[in-house]
Amino acid sequence: MSDTAAIAQLESPATGNPGLARSLTAPGLVAIGLGATIGAGIFVLTGTAAAQYAGPALSLSFVIGGIACGFVGLCYAELAAMIPEAGSTYTYTRACLGVLPAWIIGWDLVLEFAMAAATVAVGWSGYAQSLAADFGLALPAALASAPGDGGLVNLPAAGIVLVLTALLTRRTREASLVNGLLVVAKIAIILAFVGVGAVHLQPELWHPFVPENAGAFGTYGWSGVFRGAAVVFFAFVGFETVATAAGECRAPQRDAPVGLIGSLAISTILYVAVAAVLTGLVPYQELDVADPIAKAIDRLAMPGLAIVIKIGALIGLTTSALTALYGQGRIFFAMARDGLLPPLFCRVDPETRAPVASQVVIGLFTAAVAGLVPIDILGELVSIGTLLAFSLVCGIVLILRRTQPDRPRPFRVPAATPMAVLGILSCLVLMASLPADTWIRLAIWLVIGLAIYAGYGRHHTRLIRAG
User: Fold this and answer.
1) Between 391 and 7, whose confidence is greater?
2) InterPro entries of this UniProt entry (predicted)?
3) Which of 335, 27, 170 is nearest to 346 (CA)?
């Protein structure tokens, strides 16, 4: 089966089942991208990267990370405009490489999106409990954290996942509106931090801008700047959620590239600004905390603003979890539509036009993970799953440029070959830097996925293998 025929097959939905509602526009897609991207990274990772690796040059690390992520973003934009269907990388892989590779990457995306939502939910729980403590409120220890962290269940983490799942069973337009309002509020609070902080900057804290290397690769110096870029790269994870929404756009060929590139550009600008202000308010050595922005505001002796910032962090983490759950629901929808998962997961409610059953199952699973698994394990799983998906996206752009050079491309990656190659190399270098146990967990996850494919997917798929 040719790649052209495979893509045409993707654009023909399964009969007897209503498609997803096409109600999203470019502003809605930008909001989805910002909601997914600006979350745990800007509220948590900034402190760690500055204190351990880059020092005041953290803003430069964000520039480097943004450029590296930009290579991937451009490739996503070309594919999302060319193949405007739900499913993101899974959809592109099945169009280009066939059924088994599509299943593998789809199963990998389950790891990325579901674990990302769980990770953000655990971070949300931490900020929520911190804010409650400001008002003298506290949960019993057994309900405040996962078993590995000294509790029995992280009740707030599981609870926020269930609330957001309920929202996502409504119409996409309603969920998009709520997400858009939260994103506006989140950006307003971030801009308030940048504005207030800029008035109280201590420029001497930026000197030396690149601290002298401490004797080990990655600990300050220019190697620290690049190690910091590798760390903050994960702060950009989430913009690809826009690609999963391409099947719900009114004009996907135009709006999907705008949503992808627009959300990535805005996120990068905000990250650089926050990093510059943060390291100009607090000595970088003191920023290795879970709430670095709140710590910076506390230095200004503005308790009222500190509460507002914590509320902003909660909003940011809420939108990140919302969009991760949204993306996972669309991945399951696409896989079930092709017969690789039971048809339950591609059933669309005739009234809301949302994949309700898929969203509920994902929400229950993610809530359980968020409530029972410590955040450090979750974060490692998200990282390697994301990088694998990113590298495949860049590779698929190269393959389709060779096999389908004449196919209409509403958006084209400029200098496609070097851009895609740089994207692949960036991802592979970062994957190589992850610890061995992360690779082992990925291997175990993929083996489980292959067993499910062998037992169900290959017998029920409606796709013909490409080739």
Assistant:
1) 391
2) AA/rel_permease1
3) 335
Question: What is d(CA 89, CA 244) in angstroms, rounded to the nearest whole number?
Answer: 8
Whether 411 contacts 78, CB under 8 Å: yes
Residue 124 to residue 108: CA distance in whole angstroms: 24
Confidence of residue 244 (pLDDT cuts 50, 70, 90): low
Classified by CATH at the fold level, domain 22-456 comes out as Amino acid/polyamine transporter I (1.20.1740)
- Cα(105)–Cα(243) distance, rounded to whole angstroms? 15
pLDDT at 275: 92
The tokens for 135 are 């008002």
Residue with tokens 């590139």: 261
Q: Is the bond leading into 435 cis (omega within 30 degrees of zero)?
A: no
Contact 7, 400 (CB under 8 A): no
- Side-chain-side CA neighbours of 161 within 13 Å: the count stands at 34
State the Cα–Cα distance between residues 67 and 264, nearest whole angstrom: 10
pLDDT digits (tens, 9 = 90+) for 101-153: 888 888 888 877 788 788 888 878 887 888 888 788 888 989 888 887 788 99
**Cα 365 from Cα 357, distance rounded (Å):** 12
DSSP code, position 352: T
What is the phi/psi pair of residue 209, to 5°? -65, -40
* Cα–Cα distance list, 311 to 39, 134, 236, 255, 270 (Å): 12, 12, 21, 31, 18
- Residue 37 to residue 237: CA distance in whole angstroms: 6
Q: Which contiguous run of DSSP H or E holds residue 183?
A: helix 172-199
- Which DSSP category does 21 fall into? P
Give the whole-angstrom CA distance, residue 69 versus residue 397.
15
Backbone angles phi, psi at 363, to 5 degrees: -65, -45
- Mean residue pLDDT across the chain: 79
Longest dimension (CA), the chain: 66
Taking 50 as the threshold, does the pLDDT of residue 10 lie above it?
Answer: no
Alpha carbon distance 271, 15 (integer Å): 45
**Rounded-to-10 torsion of CA 52, 58, 64, 68:** 60
Encoded tokens for 250: 């009114």
* Helix 356-372 × helix 99-134 angle, to 10°: 60
CA–CA gap between residue 79 and residue 260 (Å, rounded): 11
Structure-token pair, residue 352: 């809301």
Domain boundaries, the chain: 22-456
